[in-house]
Specification:
CATH architecture: Roll
CATH topology: Pnp Oxidase, Chain A
Order of helices and strands: HHEEEEEHEHEEEEEEH
Helix content: 25-40%
Structural class: alpha+beta
Distance between the termini: 65 Å
Largest sheet: 7 strands, antiparallel
Bound molecules: flavin mononucleotide
Number of strands: 12
Radius of gyration: 19 Å
Shape: globular
Number of helices: 5
Strand order of the largest sheet: 3-2-6-9-10-5-4
Strand content: 35-45%
CATH class: Mainly Beta
Length: about 190
């Protein structure tokens, strides 16, 4: 271990970005409702924070419009995207796009929930902490739901999923198909 630290060199901005790009991250669309209008953006800086009470954190760029809105509404939703939702991840990262106009969504507990997500959380904003050019939002989870869908992940600027989960999902689908076929035979 000592050798690793001896080789340490101060990171420049580019090297730091490149290092962090190699870290596997979840892909979420964080949403809020402002004056009855849905708003949301793609966020990979989403993490579990506390078990009791259940809390999560999301980091938003200080220039993010979503950040300004959440600081007003004090509530937000987290849509953890499923493996097939990379187009959605791109859409909600595109400035000027009609993000909700091009998506299927519904209001749940007052927050916009996108169709087909892997999991869904509703949070009350507990704290907003300054962190360099980002703000870390700490949210207390008030509602949550998980589905069987494999999640979308992002690493080396490529979308994908955990290969073992993909195998598990394929196996589940195979089993479900077999059961459907058996059911059909019995009728
Ligand atoms: C895969 C991916 C992950 C992203 N993660 C974050 C993030 O964690 N925090 C953030 O502030 N922006 C993140 N972005 C960028 C925002 O989605 C993008 O800047 C968006 O246009 C911000 O919209 P807004 O200013 O309307 O909130 C990410 C973009 C992509 C494609």
């Amino acid at each position: 271990m000592q050798g690793v630290w001896e080789e340490h060199v101060p990171l420049n901005n580019l090297a730091f970005r490149d290092l962090m790009a190699g870290v596997c991250a979840p892909v979420t669309v964080v949403t809020t409702t402002r004056e009855e209008t849905p708003y949301g953006s793609t966020v990979s800086a989403f993490a579990s924070l506390s078990l009791d009470p259940p809390m999560i954190s999301v980091a938003l760029d200080r220039s993010s419009r979503l950040l300004a809105f959440i600081l007003q509404t004090k509530r937000f939703g987290v849509n953890v995207l499923a493996k097939s939702q990379q187009d959605m991840a791109r859409l909600f990262a595109t400035r000027g796009a009609d993000r909700f106009g091009q998506s299927t969504w519904a209001s749940e507990h007052g927050m916009p929930r996108l169709a087909g997500v892997a999991s869904w959380l509703v949070c009350d904003l507990a704290h907003a902490v300054e962190g360099g050019d980002h703000m870390l939002l700490l949210g207390v989870v008030t509602n949550a739901e998980k589905t069987a869908a494999a999640p979308l992940v992002y690493s080396e600027r490529i979308f994908g999923t955990h290969s073992v989960l993909l195998e598990r999902e394929t196996e589940r689908q195979r089993k479900a198909k077999r059961l459907t076929l058996l059911g059909g035979d019995m009728q």
